[in-house]
């Protein structure tokens, strides 16, 4: 399986997800500003992966912070956390990871700088390792839900590339395959950024899991055909009532799944829950640049001056969600109750 992100003596190394699948290249971020830029430009993307990147960004920032008294260092840490927090607004894992690093720093206040640096670097690496273990647990819980001998439809990329490894939605598929189920995958191409075409298909090919690429507007046709056994997607933020923010287009797939009696599963770690928000209407939705819609791989596909909307995520109301699979088990409606219990 591919390595998405690693902490190395040279800096934070990431596979460049803007270059896949044509080029398998790795970038080394040597400063926290470079990590922030990599998150913003989607060199690294996917909710858990940007959480890990942000944690490593904080550790890298403090590794290079000038010494000084505790007050000076506090201000520098705030600046680092703030820069990383302003990269992408929707995936709550980013803020979860920054908060965890900030709290650790605060608990170490007054300790020698070398020790603070070491502890923050260790914590960021721990978050990465924990994420892989969490995804494997999500896979174990989700594998039972995947029907044997059927096709699984997925949207965007919620795989190893979107996490520290193994994946959430693709982790469920991997675990079903590892359990001996005969499963193949339909991957929505996921316009405009093409995570499905560029990343999901590439990643499944690496693991020899059969994957078929479809354009987003074909999903309804195949959901009606009886061929799709279930839909499994990831999430960027899940509100207390079980409304799910995920890649734009997820909502349409969920509605079409329900219309056709196909189970719609969301696979996500507990760190994707945002129980401070009562419903999905409160989730901030990122707007991405127009050029992602008007251009494909740098080539214009629309006339110059075209007006564009480019929300990166949509919110699927909880009534379309058959179950939410986390590392602690499978939550079902009513979600306000089941997610509260699961998170506690
Ligand atoms: O804009 P992206 O590529 O970061 O969006 C990613 C998604 O929407 C994923 O489905 C989500 O982050 C879950 S990843 C395990």
Describe the structure in your own words.
The chain is α/β, with parallel strands linked by helices and 344 residues long. Helix content is 41%, strand content 17%. The strands form four sheets. The chain has a seven-stranded mixed sheet with strand order 6-5-4-7-10-15-16, sandwiched between helices. A four-stranded mixed sheet has the order 11-8-9-14, covered by helices on one side. Strands 1-2-3 form a three-stranded antiparallel sheet. It is globular. The structure holds 5-S-methyl-1-O-phosphono-5-thio-D-ribulose. 5-S-methyl-1-O-phosphono-5-thio-D-ribulose (MRU) is lined by residues 45-48, 91, 156, 158, 162-163, 168, 195, 234-236, 246-247, 312.
Reported CATH architecture of the largest domain: 3-Layer(aba) Sandwich
Bound molecules: 5-S-methyl-1-O-phosphono-5-thio-D-ribulose
The main sheet comes to: 7 strands, mixed
How many H/I helical runs?
Answer: 11
What overall form do the CA principal axes indicate? globular
Do you know the CATH topology of the largest domain? Rossmann fold
Q: Average pLDDT value?
A: 97
* The CATH class of the largest domain: Alpha Beta
Salient structural properties:
2 domains; globular; alpha/beta; Four Helix Bundle (Hemerythrin (Met), subunit A); 344 residues; four-stranded mixed β-sheet; binds 5-S-methyl-1-O-phosphono-5-thio-D-ribulose; seven-stranded mixed β-sheet; Rossmann fold; 16 strands
